[in-house]
Amino acid sequence: xxxxxxxxxxxxxxxxxxxxxxxxxxxxxxxxxxxxxxxxxxxxxxxxxxxxxxxxxxxxxxxxxxxxxxxxxxxxxxxxxxxxxxxxxxxxxxxxxxxxxxxxxxxxxxxxxxxxxxxxxxxxxxxxxxxxxxxxxxxxxxxxxxxxxxxxxxxxxxxxxxxxxxxxxxxxxxxxxxxxxxxxxxxxxxxxxxxxxxxxxxxxxxxxxxxxxxxxxxxxxxxxxxxxxxxxxxxxxxxxxxxxxxxxxxxxxxxxxxxx
Length: 260
Ligand code: ATP
Ligand code: MG
Description:
Blueprint: E1 3-7, H1 16-29, E2 34-38, H2 44-48, H3 60-64, H4 70-73, E3 75-76, E4 83-85, H5 90-98, H6 107-116, E5 121-125, H7 132-140, E6 143-149, H8 154-171, E7 177-186, H9 191-204, E8 208-214, H10 217-221, H11 229-232, H12 237-259
Parallel strand pairs: 1-5, 1-6, 2-4, 2-5, 6-7, 7-8
Antiparallel strand pairs: 3-4
Helix pairs in contact: 1-12, 6-7
């Protein structure tokens, strides 16, 4: 069964793309067939997978507007372990152009149907906004991973995201669930980070991943080499954390399936 997971948080720079790219590589490393969908006009997941966003003739923009099919646009990441549905600045126009289209919220979901069976996991890297692109991601997804930095304002935006997910569940995608909150860029020496982390666990319990992603400069360096960190430097602390997250995700997945 294909599992579609959106990595979303309307806050910028919280580690969405780093999480999506490294999870894609981690799941591929564990033998899973993975498609990484770049839903952000910044094209960071595309570049971070080693694909030059400026050289693309067709992108997810063409897919969302019905000008091309996923089969014609997806491409293998040069690392060779997972497929990417790439994006670049063209996608910024899609939001406006999609407004007048029919079923504008379900365009990604419909476009993925023909290829879904080819993958075990489809990961969606959402942009830092609660816009139509993110809504397309949430409508297509079975579940959501929410990366968060443990800082003072972390919880403030969370209720907006949770409300958006609730609305999507009520009107467009009754199955969607929050898979988990992921603590990213964590610095254990920072007392505030520890407090916020403890607060998250109190409020959200098992919805918080046990795995914590530490602040680690290798994670920030890897994209400039066009590689997920777990391929670029598998031994660094950041990569090890993403491998642990992959294992936790697979373990949780197996537990849900056996409970069903
Ligand atoms: P945006 O909202 O702009 O899409 P994002 O939520 O996708 O951002 P990333 O692009 O993954 O966030 O991360 C923001 C920046 O922080 C990047 O430069 C990235 O390389 C760096 N970064 C991400 N995670 C870590 C980490 N754990 N340690 C150190 N640097 C990190
Ligand atoms: Mg991003």
